[in-house]
Structures are given as structure tokens and as C-alpha cells.
Amino acid sequence: QITTLINHKDKPKRSDKTLQAIQRVGQAVNLAVGRFVTVGEAIANENHELKEEMSVACIEARRAGETIAQLTNVASLDHPESDSHITVFTDKTSVVKAARLLLSSVTKVLVLADRIVIKQIITSRNKVLATMEQLEKVSSFQEFVQIFSQFGNEMVEFAHLTGDRQNDLKDEKKKARMAASRAVLEKCTMMLLTASKTCLRHPDCESARINKDGVFHRMRLALEQVIEIVTDSRSNGENEVAPISIYSGIKEFKNKVEGLRENLYFLSKENLSTMLEVILEHTEDFTDSAYTSHEHREHILELSKQAKMELEQLVSVWMQAQNQKTKDLMEDLEVAILKTCQCMNELKREVHSAATSLAADLLKYHTDHMVLKALKITGVEGNLEAVAEYTCKLSEQKEQLVEMCRLLRHVSGTEPLEITCIHAEDTFQVTGPQIISAAETLALHPSSKIAKENLEVFCEAWESQLSDMSMLLREINDVFEGRRGEKRVYLSLPRPGKHNANLKALKPVKLDTEEQAKIAKLGLELHLLTSDLDSETEKWEDQENEIVQHGQGMSSMAYSMYLFTRGEGLLKTTQDLFHQAEIFATEGTKLASALHAFSDQIHDDDKPLLLLEAEKLISMCKQLQITAKASVQGKSATFTKVDACILKTRNVMTLLCQLLPLCCKLLRKNKAGNGCLKPAPPWREDRIRTGTNAHTPERRAETFGIKSLENHVTNMTFLESK
To answer: Which residue stretches, if any, does this entry annotate as coiled coil (predicted)?
Structure first.
């Protein structure tokens, strides 16, 4: 708007229509400034240390906006009576001055607001660190539950602040680093819970302590990296020196070589030779690797030798051309430049082929997770020798995957993908030993439920990273083949035939980054509710109870929907999400039926409340089913439907978090001898008849095979009875 005002054409005469248009622009600027300043003043009132500076900047901005509105006001202009055209116009110099003042003051407001945001993130990080220190020192389970609940709330606040910051970052490299650090924090929060519980349950177990210490250490490093990105600094004043990749080295080398066409004197031959030496040193990562095939190794060595020869020829012609610019020499130089660049392209293609073929083979080979399955089985059996054998195999697998990440980093093609490769390498490097310590703990305490759960959590983190590597490999290939930026269309998962009618004409759609950011907060709330519900189901002594099983199934499905909001998990498209929401609602209706059957057997003051909540559950599930089945077209309408499905799923989960404790209390009253249950309840018999089907293929298909992650994160008031 300001540009429009400043760049208006200086014609001697202007029509009323032109002046009115300029007046509207001036008023629009003033209104926009007013809205902006109102937000700035609200921020100032909440942050007293910067209130004075912010208030001054806001006053300046408001004054400048009002000045612009006055200067563009048609009512203040002189209208000659004899001419319909305007002959006198607002002083343009005053508008320019007001515009400069406005931009200056708005910039001040933005900078001050940014300082406040950074301070909020640092303060939030400090809270998390302080609570982590308390968590490390707790010795009783009850104390741990209380502190972890506080820790969970603080982590959610930190996630919100850093998520907003990540979306605001313009530097793609910083954005990728922030995403990697936040992913570590989220996964480690779940690991911290199970690792700490294991340590509390088995305080004298050294492997349990090592396991827990590893999680705390990794979380501290991730928190530190977030602050480095936010404040644009490094700890101890050190500079970040990322190792150069072969791709970036070749790109820079080719730019220098091709620059010789324009200027023969802008760099020395020593510079070019050094650049090539660095690139060829990095190719040794491939030629020295035990996992590079003999054929690839030979080709890389051959191309490296050829690159040296081509550069020698180029330098020779280049030096001659510097002394004598003849037509023949310039043609020879052009040929030498083309041959050198072609050789570098072939080298780039060869290392890409070596890295991606190795990655594809390794990911395919390890897709069955046989070593992890064996560790779980031998751990439960308490077979220490077998656990030791499989930990060696896992260590070998870890080395292979770490090497794969290092080679992929060289051919990733972009800095964000390079950072993702480095993050993946760190994850395998750290998670491998953590799985081993968790498996050793389980082998020492084979009957420990929490030790088993802890191993499951670390194994799932490993499996998740392997799945992420498949997506990363596709992205790297897309960059290499020039497909970067295209929207990838994912095929929907197979569905039972009864749903096909609704989906026949619909294309699978995946949320883009902006849509994921919009829905992130709702997803986090859903994540927390799955934690709460899982902690409630853990309180039940009879884990085979029908109510518990329905609750666990719904928690599992809700968790998969949360993963969808992050672009992760098995639900790849919006149609997958809608289908999952339908199944979730169906499971909720089944749970309501079980609750009605249960209520028929009780005589207790809370029975009316139970029936009321069960009816609410039925109503909410019907609403969710209607929303999930509704047909929509267009990107905006699809996103609105996604938002509605997740919102209604969250509401159902909130209700379940109230229902399950109520049912658990009624069962406990019965066990305490209060006689709130009639003898031989048929709902129990019904559970026995239907319970055997709880793990049938049909049921597994309904939840897309997603196993519930027990006690994911935070807001916990669980296991108080223990």
C-alpha cells in the first residue's frame, strides 16, 4: 500500500476517481497500522521490561499512519470550480517522510516482539531443564508422577513456542535443524517416561540407569541446539563448521571452472587444485567403505583419476590463454571446461548410484526387524547369552545404517536434506546402544512389565527412523532427478469393500507443510489425551477387560491420527485419516454398548452418571461418523474436514478420559466388598465370547496395524494406586 502511494504518477491533473482511490489506500494503511499497533501495545503490557521501548515505537507508528491518512484525504484538497479535474495534490514529500517514519517504527515493533519471543523460548527451555533435574533425582514413583505431569505441560508449551518459531524461520537450513531437534525432544519425552519408570522399578540395575542417562543427555543436547538456532549463536562462541558434501563441492568447483569463460584471472590454479583434492578426499568415504560394491568402487577410482587429468589439461590451456588470447586457445579452453564439467557430472552420478543403491538394499534387508523381535523374545525369556548374541547383531546393523547415512549425506543435494541425513545418523548412533541397555535390563528382569514396555518404546523409535529413511531416500532421488517441489501422491491403504463406495471418485491427498502447521496444536492435544487414556487403562488389573480393550484400541487409533498431523505414521493421506475416524467412531459405539451392559449389573449412586456419559459417547461417535463420511471437494474443504475429524476425535478422547476412571472406581468398589455388582454379570460372559476376536485380522485391519504406544507423554495423573 505504501509503495502504491509513493509511486503514484506525478500528472498535473487527476480525476476525482484517482484521488478517491488514493484516499482509500491512505485509509487502508492507517487501519492496518492501527490493528498492528494494537497487538504491539498488548505485547508491551505483558512484557514490562520492554514496555517503554515498545510503547514509543507503537506511538510513532500510529502517528505516521494518521499522517498518511490526512495527507491522502480528498476533503483537504482544493477543488477548482471551473474544472472537473483536480489541479492541486497532496505534498508527496510529506507522504515519503511519513512512510519512512512508519516503516522505521514498524520495524522497531517487530524487532522488539522478536526479542520477546526469543526470551519466552529461553525461559521455557530453562523451566524444562529445571524440571528435568528434579526428574533425574526422584526416588519414589509418586513423586515422579507429580513432577512428570508438570514436565509434560512445560514440554507442550516449549513445543508450541518452537513450532511457531520453526514456521517463521526463512533459512531452510535452520528450519531443518529446528525440525530435527524438536523431533528428538518429542520422541525422547516418551523414552524418558519409560526409562525413568524402569529405573524406579529396578533401582539397582546398572543397564537401566545407563538407559535413562542416555535419554536425559540427548534431550539436553537437543534443547541446547534449539536455543543455538533461536539466538543464532553457538555455545562457547564456536562456529558451526558443517563438513562439506561431495555434491556441494562439485557444484562449487563447476561454478569456478565455468567462471573462466568470463574472467581468466579471478582465481588461481592452486585454488582449483585444492577444491578438487577436497572432493576426491571425500570420495574416499565411498572407496574405503566395506559396504560399497566392487563395481562402484572401481568406477569412482577411475573417474577420480580422470578428473585429475582433465584439470591438468584445463590448467595448461588456461595458463596459455592468460598470456595469449587467440581464437584457437579460447576454443581449446572451452573444450577443456566442458570435458572437466562432464567428468565431474559422471563422478556425481556414480557416487549417487553407490549411496542410493546401498541404502535401498539395506532398508529392504532390515525391513522385517528380525533382530529387534529376537531381542524382545530372548529378553522376556531371561536368556542373557542370546540377548548378548543379538545385541552384537544390532551393533553390526547400526554400523551399516550409520555408514549409509554418511554416504547419503554426500549426495543429498540440498542443505536441509543434508541435515536430515546427519540427524538420522545421530539417531541410529544413539538409539542402538539404548536398545541394547533396555534389552539387557529386560533379560535381567524378565517378568518386569515396565522393562518390556521400555524396550518396546526404543525398538519403535528404531523402526520409525528406518521408515523415515525410506522417505528420505525418495526425496534425495527426487532432487537428483530434478523433481524437487512436486507434490508426491501416496496410494491409500487397502480398505474393506464396504467403504469403497465413498472413496471411488476421491484422489488421495496429503497435508502440505502449511496445513500441518495449522493443525499441529490440535494434534498435540490429541497426543496428550492418548497418554492420559493409556495411563488410565494401565490402572486396570484385568487388561483383558472388554472396556479396557476398546479403550486401548481407540487410543491407538487416536495416536495414529496425531501422527498424521505431523506427516508421519501409516496414515499417509486424508482419505486414510477419514477412514480411521470412521473406525474410531465404530469402536466408540462398541465401547458404549459394553458400558451399557456393565451398567445393568451395578447398584451405585454413580450409575446415572455412567449412563449419561455413555449416551454422550454414542452421540459424539455418530457425529464423527457423519463428518468422516461427508463428501467434500477442493483443498480448502478437505482441510476443514480434516480439522473437524481431529477436533471431534479429541472430544471423544476427552470423554473417555472421564469414563474409564469412573468404571475403574466402580470395579474397585465391588472388589472392596461394597456389592455394587450383581453376581455372574452377563457383560463379562459377552466379553469372553467376543474377547477372543480382539486380535483377529479384521480388528488389526481396523486399526491399520498400529500398536498402542503406552504412556507417550505428559499431563499425567496416573498409577497413583501403585
So the answer is: none
